């Protein structure tokens, strides 16, 4: 039964010039109205969920909503579904925000994991990416979080940005280590169509495919050498500190999403709220506005998601979940994939680091 909740917070202090996540400029009255609508949405959600094992506030920039509003939404989730003992409750934070008081409120409300959008340890690169924070802000945010009682946090790094060198990546990974991050997400910069960077032609200043591959493999090597184990294409964690919520996505488990642009997978159906804050507010987050996205969770989808994980697909789990799926056909296709991109044995099938770089093509080949 579904035991995961995602809440989308559609506000940012300022839009980053490469980003296409759904968010609008932070505005106090709008944020009050949104908090009320999210609470109503949770109260009226026509789904029975198990007590929540994971709750994830993503965005946008959830921290701009502030501790009190986020706590009210969390209380509403608890009142509606219950929150299981030991649940992982994560809030994404901008290191630039004035966080001290807000983080104390969140910690008191039960939030136990923070994810900071660090991106780089170099102020010049942060400026060029249009970020509002500096490397010193990241250090200060993490110290503040620790002072508020947070022991678990993740840092995001951005790879293959214009002018980034292997030494820059090493410096960023080094800072993650010094700050004691137990989890790191390392993403290649993706300039979304229609964004300011796209219009300005910044793509031409970014590394080409070969340069992106080199940056990715360099970062993966540096993170592994620093003691984080790669468990997903873009995610690395200390022993036992994988992101439980995100792991449910990759394991093709169900989750409920609340907020404009939030996706859900519940009772075998996938659906999402439109990217429309005004519409969400006007309807009080009514799930009748959600757009049906068809059935979810078939064997093909499971394989596509699981192959993002370093652990890959285990034959025994595949057979238990999908008894009618012909795994022999998959093994036959795996034998034809060029060397070095996947490994498979009597336990299962998984992509290598090089395979992760070509994951879409390799997975397409396996499932085609
Ligand atoms: S990258 Fe994050 S902070 Fe920047 S606009 Fe996108 S959601 Fe907001």
From TrEMBL:
CDD domains named among the record's database cross-references: Radical_SAM (cd01335)
Please give the chief subcellular localization of this protein.
cytoplasm
Q: Note the PROSITE patterns from the entry.
A: RADICAL_SAM
- Give the GO cellular component terms, alphabetically: cytoplasm
Q: Which UniProt keywords apply?
A: 4Fe-4S, Chaperone, Cytoplasm, Heme, Iron, Iron-sulfur, Metal-binding, S-adenosyl-L-methionine
| Subcellular location as annotated | Cytoplasm
Q: What Pfam families does the record tag this protein with?
A: HemN_C (PF06969), Radical_SAM (PF04055)
This one is known as: Heme chaperone HemW
Q: Which organism is it from?
A: Anaerotruncus massiliensis
């Amino acid at each position: 039964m579904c035991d995961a909740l995602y809440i989308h917070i559609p506000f940012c202090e300022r839009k980053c010039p490469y980003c296409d996540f759904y968010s609008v400029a932070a505005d106090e009255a709008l944020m009050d109205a949104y908090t009320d609508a999210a609470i109503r949405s949770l109260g009226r959600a026509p789904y029975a969920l198990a007590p929540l094992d994971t709750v994830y506030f993503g965005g946008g920039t959830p921290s701009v909503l502030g501790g009190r509003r986020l706590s009210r939404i969390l209380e509403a989730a608890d009142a509606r579904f219950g929150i299981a003992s030991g649940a992982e409750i994560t809030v994404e934070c901008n290191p630039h925000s004035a966080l001290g008081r807000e983080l104390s409120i969140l910690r008191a409300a039960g939030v136990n994991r923070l994810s900071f959008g660090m991106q780089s340890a170099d102020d010049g690169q942060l400026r060029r990416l249009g970020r509002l924070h500096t490397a010193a802000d990241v250090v200060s945010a993490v110290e503040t979080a620790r002072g508020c009682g947070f022991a678990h946090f993740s840092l995001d790094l951005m790879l293959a940005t214009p002018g980034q060198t292997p030494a820059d990546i090493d410096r960023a990974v080094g800072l993650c280590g010094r700050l004691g991050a137990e989890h790191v997400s390392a993403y290649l910069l993706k300039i979304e169509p229609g964004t300011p960077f796209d219009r300005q032609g910044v793509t031409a200043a970014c590394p080409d495919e070969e340069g992106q591959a080199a940056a990715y493999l360099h970062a993966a090597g540096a993170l592994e050498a620093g003691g984080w184990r790669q468990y997903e294409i873009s995610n690395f964690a200390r022993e036992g500190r994988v992101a439980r919520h995100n792991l449910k996505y990759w394991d093709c488990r169900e989750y409920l999403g609340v907020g404009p642009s939030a996706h859900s997978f519940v009772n075998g159906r996938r659906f999402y709220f439109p990217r429309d804050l005004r519409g969400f507010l006007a309807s009080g987050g009514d799930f009748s506005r959600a757009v049906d996205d068809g059935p979810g969770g078939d064997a093909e989808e499971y394989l596509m998601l699981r192959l993002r994980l370093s652990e890959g697909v285990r034959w025994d789990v595949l057979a238990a979940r999908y008894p009618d799926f012909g795994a022999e056909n998959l093994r036959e296709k795996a034998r034809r994939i060029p060397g070095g991109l996947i490994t498979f044995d009597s336990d299962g099938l998984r992509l290598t680091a090089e395979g992760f770089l070509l994951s879409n093509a390799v997975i397409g080949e396996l499932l085609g």
